[in-house]
Design brief:
The complex is a heterodimer. In chain A, about 50% of the residues lie in helices and about 10% in strands. Chain A has 7 helices and 4 strands. A 4-stranded mixed beta sheet of chain A has the order 2-1-3-4, with helices on one face. In chain A, a hairpin with a 2-residue loop joins strand 3 (about 120-125) and strand 4 (about 125-130). The longest helix of chain A has 13 residues, at about 5-15. Chain A is elongated. Chain B has 4 domains: about 5-85, Glutaredoxin (3-Layer(aba) Sandwich); about 105-300, NADH-ubiquinone oxidoreductase 51kDa subunit (Rossmann fold); about 305-395, Ubiquitin-like (UB roll) (Roll), CATH 3.10.20; about 400-505, NADH-ubiquinone oxidoreductase 51kDa subunit, iron-sulphur binding domain (de novo design (two linked rop proteins), Up-down Bundle). By secondary structure, chain B is an alpha/beta fold. In chain B, strand 14 (about 350-355) and strand 15 form a beta hairpin. In chain B, helix 6 crosses helix 13, helix 10 (about 185-200) packs across helix 13 and helix 17 (about 400-415) packs antiparallel against helix 18. The chains are: A alpha+beta, B alpha/beta.
C-alpha cells in the first residue's frame, strides 16, 4: 500500500472512531474509496479495532457488498428475485451478458424494492425499471 | 400564471423516469414540488396538478399537460381514484401529499402529535397504549409490539437501544422503503416514542444498502429533527447486501460490526440485545404505526382488522400484476380481491397461475385458495405466511418447479452458515430438485452398496424416492433450522410441489400435513 493510500485509510478509520460498532461503516468507506478491501487494509483495520485479522476477514467475506479483489470494470446490478422473475428477467440475462462481454460486470442481486415495475437494475445509485432486451443492451452500451 | 406540479421523488418513480419529467416541467416554466409517492406504481411517473393526476407521464407529454390536454393519460382526481379511495390509510395517510423531508409539511399534517401525547401520558401509559392497540410486528413474525416494549421498559440497564429493522430484503416488499423515502419523520417519531416509552436514548435504523435514496432521506430528516426528538439520538446504519441480516439477531451482530450470523434465542434481544443491552428491535412498519396509535388512541387502531390481527396492513402488490403498488387496508381482505379486483390480474393479461405471499420464504398459493382472508392465523393454518405483506403474482407461463429450485438456491446464497439444515440442506435441495427435473434419480452410495449395510436398499432410486427425500429434507429444514431463513424455505418448495406437481413431472405429490 502506498503512503497516500495508507494515510487515507487511517483517516477513514479515525473518522469512525467515535461510533459504536464502527466496522461496517469503515468497510463501506474503504470499499467506496479503493474499490475493494485489500489484505493490507484488513490488517490495518484489525489493529485499529483491536481485533484479529481473521475476524476482519470473516466480516469482509460475509457480506456481498465487500470485495476482496478490485472488480476493475463498471458494474450493473441486475435483480433476479421472485418479482423480477415473474416479470421476465430471466429472458434478459443472456442478452445482457452478451452485451456486457468483458467490459461490464453483471452482478446478480436480490431485490431493489421496485417489485411492480421490474425487471429492475441499478448502476451506481441510479435505479432503472421496466427493462427489456433493447433497454438493457442500451444501458450496458452507455456504461463507461 | 405559475403552475405548481407535484411529482414523486421516490426511487421507483425515479427508476421510471420521474427526474426527466420533472426537468421538462421546470424547463417549461412550471414550479415542481417533489413529493412522496401515492403508491399507484403502474402510473409512475405520476404528475399532479391541483389534485388532477396524469400518468404514466413522459417528457413528451409535458406541454400537452400544461395546455390542459393529455386526456389519454389523465386519471382525474387522484384522491378519488378507486385504488386510493378503497384504502384505509393510517400509516400511509401522507403518501403523495407531502414533501418527504419538509418539517413544515410534517407538522401541518399532524406530525409529532403522537410524540407530544406520549410525553404527556408518561412512559408506562405510552407502552400500555401500544399494547392495547393490538399492534403486531409487521416484519413477519407478528409478535405483539407492546409486549416487547413492556419487556424492555421493565429491564434495568445503563443503556437501552431502539433498533429499526429496515433490511427489507423480501422480493415484493417496498412498504418500508416508501416510509423511509416518503415519510421519514413518521419513522423517526415512532422511534422517539419507543425510546421515551422504554427509557432508551439511542436508536439505530439498519437500512439495506440497496436503498441509497432511503438512506439519504433518513439522514437529512434525522439531522433536521434532532432538536425535536432530543434527548433521543438516532443514526442510520447501512447494511452490506446480506439478506439474512433482516433476521433480528443477525442484524444486531451486523450492527456490532460482526458477521451477520444468527444468535440462538434465548436470551431474547429485549433483554440481551445490541451490545448485550436491552433492545427493542421493530420493523419499519411497526414503528411507523406508532405515531397514529399515540395520536389517535389505541382504540382507533384496534377498531380495524379481524381476530387477533388488529389495525391495518400496508399490502404490496407486485410481480406480474396490472395495477401494482401499495394498498393499505384493514386485515381480513381476501387474496382474490387483492389480486383480481384491486390488482386487475396479471400485467400480461394471461390467467394467474399462482401468487407468492410473504417474500422468498412465503408459500405459493393457488387461485383455488383465493378466498383466504389476510390474517396472520388464517395463513399459518394453511402452512403459509403473510410475512411483510408482499404479494408476487405469476402468470401461466411461470415454471413453479423452477421457482421451488430458486427458493433453495436463494437460501444457499443467503444462509449465514451457522446451522446445518439451512447451510447444507439448501444446497442439497438444489441438487435434489435438479435430479427430479432431469429425471435422473441418484444411484446408491458406495457405502449403501456395501455388504455390511444389510438394511440399506440396493435398488436404483425412483423418482418417488427422490420426491420423498425432498419432503424429508424440507421437514428437517423446517424444524431444525435456527431462524426463519432455513425454517421457512420449505414453504415455497412444498407449496409449489403440492399445487403444481405437473411442473415437477409427477402426477400428484403427497405433501405431509402441517405438523406442530
Amino acid at each position: 500500500m502506498t503512503d497516500g493510500k495508507a494515510a487515507r485509510l487511517d483517516e477513514i478509520i479515525a473518522s469512525h472512531a467515535h461510533r459504536e460498532g464502527p466496522m461496517l461503516p469503515i468497510l463501506h468507506d474503504v470499499q467506496a474509496e479503493f474499490g475493494h478491501v485489500s489484505e493490507d487494509a484488513k490488517r490495518t483495520i484489525a489493529k485499529a479495532l483491536n481485533l484479529s485479522r481473521a475476524e476482519v476477514h470473516g466480516v469482509v467475506s460475509f457480506y456481498h457488498d465487500f470485495k476482496a479483489e478490485p472488480v476493475g470494470k463498471p458494474v450493473l446490478k441486475l435483480c433476479r428475485a421472485e418479482s423480477c422473475k415473474a416479470r421476465g428477467v430471466e429472458n434478459l440475462v443472456a442478452a445482457a451478458e452478451a452485451a456486457a462481454g468483458d467490459r461490464v460486470e453483471i452482478e446478480t442481486i436480490y431485490c431493489l424494492g421496485l417489485c411492480s415495475v421490474g425487471p429492475n437494475a441499478m448502476i451506481g445509485k441510479r435505479p432503472y425499471a421496466m427493462l427489456d432486451v433493447p433497454k438493457i443492451e442500451a444501458l450496458i452500451r452507455e456504461m463507461a | 400564471m405559475m403552475v405548481t406540479v407535484r411529482i414523486s421523488d421516490d426511487a421507483l418513480a425515479i427508476a421510471c423516469g420521474a427526474d426527466d419529467v420533472a426537468k421538462a416541467f421546470e424547463k417549461a416554466g412550471a414550479t415542481v414540488e417533489r413529493v412522496s409517492s401515492w403508491g399507484m406504481q403502474w402510473l409512475e411517473p405520476l404528475v399532479e396538478i391541483s389534485g388532477i393526476g396524469f400518468g404514466p407521464a413522459t417528457p413528451g407529454d409535458v406541454q400537452a399537460i400544461l395546455d390542459g390536454g393529455a386526456d389519454a393519460i389523465c386519471i382525474g382526481p387522484i384522491a378519488a381514484h378507486p385504488f386510493i379511495a378503497g384504502q384505509q390509510r393510517l400509516t400511509f395517510a401522507r403518501a403523495g401529499k407531502t414533501r418527504p423531508t419538509s418539517l413544515e409539511d410534517y407538522e401541518a399534517t399532524g406530525g409529532w402529535k403522537g410524540l407530544n401525547r406520549a410525553r404527556e401520558l408518561g412512559p408506562e401509559a405510552a407502552v400500555e397504549e401500544v399494547v392495547s392497540s393490538g399492534l403486531r410486528g409487521r416484519g413477519g413474525a407478528g409478535f405483539p409490539t407492546g409486549i416487547k416494549w413492556r419487556t424492555v421498559a421493565g429491564a434495568k440497564a445503563d443503556q437501552k437501544y431502539i433498533v429499526c429493522n429496515a433490511d427489507e430484503g423480501d422480493s415484493a416488499t417496498f412498504a418500508d422503503r416508501m416510509v423511509m423515502e416518503g415519510d421519514p419523520y413518521m419513522l423517526i417519531e415512532g422511534m422517539a416514542i419507543a425510546g421515551f416509552a422504554a427509557g432508551a436514548t439511542r436508536g439505530y435504523i439498519y437500512c439495506r444498502s440497496e436503498y441509497p435514496h432511503a438512506i439519504a432521506k433518513l439522514e437529512e430528516a434525522i439531522h433536521k429533527s434532532a432538536h425535536i426528538v432530543h434527548p433521543f439520538v438516532l443514526e442510520v446504519r447501512e447494511g452490506a447486501g446480506a439478506y439474512v441480516c433482516g433476521e433480528e439477531t443477525s442484524l444486531l451482530n451486523s450492527l456490532e460490526g460482526k458477521r451477520g450470523e444468527v444468535r440462538a434465542k434465548p436470551p431474547i434481544p429485549a433483554l440481551v440485545g445490541l451490545f448485550g443491552r436491552p433492545t427493542i428491535v421493530n420493523n419499519v412498519l411497526s414503528l411507523a404505526a406508532v405515531p397514529f396509535i399515540l395520536a389517535e388512541g389505541a382504540k382507533a387502531y384496534a377498531d380495524c382488522g379481524m381476530g387477533r390481527s388488529r389495525g391495518t396492513m400496508p399490502i404490496q402488490l407486485a410481480g406480474n400484476i396490472k395495477h401494482g403498488g401499495l394498498y393499505e387496508t384493514a386485515f381480513g381482505i381476501t387474496l382474490g380481491a387483492l389480486v383480481n379486483d384491486i390488482g386487475g390480474g396479471t400485467a400480461t393479461g394471461k390467467p394467474v397461475k399462482g401468487v407468492q405471499v410473504g417474500g422468498p420464504l412465503g408459500a405459493y398459493l393457488h387461485p383455488d385458495q383465493f378466498d383466504i382472508p389476510f390474517d396472520y392465523e388464517a395463513y399459518a393454518a394453511v402452512d403459509a405466511l403473510i410475512g411483510h405483506g408482499g404479494i408476487t403474482v405469476f402468470d401461466e407461463d411461470a415454471d413453479m418447479a423452477g421457482m421451488a429450485r430458486f427458493a433453495m438456491e436463494f437460501c444457499a446464497a443467503e444462509s449465514c452458515g451457522k446451522c446445518t439444515p439451512c447451510r447444507i440442506g439448501s444446497t442439497r435441495g438444489v441438487e435434489l430438485i435438479d435430479r427430479i427435473l432431469d429425471r435422473a434419480p441418484r444411484t446408491r452410495d458406495t457405502v449403501e452398496a456395501l455388504p455390511q449395510m444389510h438394511n440399506a436398499p440396493k435398488d436404483q432410486r425412483s423418482l418417488d424416492d427422490e420426491i420423498e427425500l425432498l419432503e424429508d429434507l424440507c421437514e428437517t429444514m423446517k424444524f431444525g433450522s435456527l431462524c426463519a431463513l432455513g425454517g421457512f424455505t420449505p414453504y415455497p418448495v412444498m407449496s409449489a410441489l403440492k399445487h403444481w406437481p405437473a411442473d415437477f413431472g409427477v402426477a400428484t405429490a403427497k405433501v405431509p400435513e402441517a405438523a406442530e
